[in-house]
Amino acid sequence: MGGFLFFGLPGGLDFQGFCMSVPVNHLNAAQKKWYANLVVAAILADQKIVKSEIEFLKQIISVIDNPADKKALLSQVETKKASPLVPPPPGIPPQTLAAIYLELCLIMISDSEFDQEERDFLAQIARLMNFSDRYINDLNGWMNTGLEWKKRQQNFLPPEVDLDSGPTWLVSLPAPQREWYAQVMISTILLDREVDSMEMEFLKAAISLVADKGKKNLFLGYIKNRFSPNLEAPPQDFNPAKLVRVMVDVILLIALDDKISVNESTHLERLSKLCSISATQFSALMAWCAQRVEWNNNRNPLIGAVKMAGPGAKEAAPKPKEIFTPRIFECFICGSKEVNHFHLRVGAALVSNLFGRPSFIKEGDLVVDYLRHKIMVCPRCFFASGEKAFFKKEATDKPPVHLQGNFKSQWGHGLDLRKKRFAPFLSFLGAPDPDLEFVKLCFETAAQAQEAMNFNNAYELNWEVAKTRMDEAEVLMRGGQKAEALEQLAHVRHLCEQMMETCRNDLFLMQAAKTLFFLALYREDKPDANRYLNFFMQLGDKGDKLDPNSKAQASKLLPLVKRSFDNKEQFTPSALDGFHPKVEPVKKNKTA
């Protein structure tokens, strides 16, 4: 078992962190200093430092020999003020620059989030490194795949399982449970009877969990003889949620390889049965593991295929047909197999607006109104949605719960009216350049569908309606219909205020409060903005009372809200072009 470790720290059983993968030994002192400053700037890009980043910082600072340079790096971390970004020193091979960029990508997505400030940071770095536009898209596509993989883990993990807690969760386990965990890890690492230096660090960390001298000596014997002990059932009082965490740790360990062997698959299946993990959940975990392995395997070929831009070169922008790939889905409601979907290319450079909603694509001089293609409409029953999950993509796909029950018959009652409304626009279904009035109708119909699903006023569907209304407001504003755009934002405000009163889910509350905060800044309503700033500050004071996901989200949003409040003048209509920062015209130098 070997390979690169992209989310794991040698020296401790932390499988959610990340470690240095750049060949720093091939860099000179000036190049190492530039690299270290770059990493610190990346970590400080979102103005918060998580546990895994602290461990990574220790590794980075250790490569710097000059004490003054070490002190300067620590000062940047303490003050949260990174040094200015500068081009790389001469002599760094293009492949090493690509490896550094991908390492920065891992820092950006280590908390399963990727906000606009982090996007802007990476865009600036990519230009300083002088990569070609196409290659930048490939690099960002790899990162987006990793981000998707990180987010998928929440599909099968209970809310109380905090993957970002690192190895600290093991400390609270009773001795028998720690010993069982150690035996599982030793059994996994020694499956192929080979141990590299990284795995030896993991083995040492596993042994450190064992207090009983007899057990410790037994485990040391396994390691010395490269013998993989049999898996045993966990202690009876082991929390089922934490058993899922154990399973995930083992998967992350196995996923370091460039493939999953038959022996490893059998090992994982045996462990899942001992942990009473259902067959459905095990299949999801194995698919997640396979995605991780494939993602890792794509890294080195991507680095090897590095492409640099020529001096002063300007590449041709990709054509719209390269941004989208037309696909056909099936309607769950009426069975029509003619639902057009414009599949967005992985890594497309999406630009987000004031409210954090992806709005349009900008690559070079090319600007594509992404939102005009977002809503899918069935040409038979005119069911509309921007979510692929609400359409049948594969033969085995099942309709989501919101489309079951009475929804089909309820949607059918309004068919005649929808036919009449869509009649003038049928030629735009699947068209690459749809008319604005048609796009407005698509968004309105999608919002009506969401509202029809929401018969019990569920907060998650209220939030979906709010997002649809925000996206429609963006389309209207970009189409020059400001009054109608502001009308949609009034709907959004009402929905979010309802959520603040009735919702009991912290994650959805934060989304609603964030939206209301930026709406207040846009309206130049300082008291209302201050109200939602106080909401986030009070939420931050809750600390450990929040579940792990809510705590992570709160720690990310609070600095953003504070920073935005301090710079509130940047979010007023006069300072914006629609819902986006104004682009200052380039000043030309006067010639004699």
From TrEMBL:
Residues 579-592 have a biased composition (Basic and acidic residues). InterPro entries: TerB-like. Gene3D superfamilies: TerB-like. Residues 571-592 are annotated as: Disordered. It comes from the Bacteria. This is Co-chaperone DjlA N-terminal domain-containing protein.
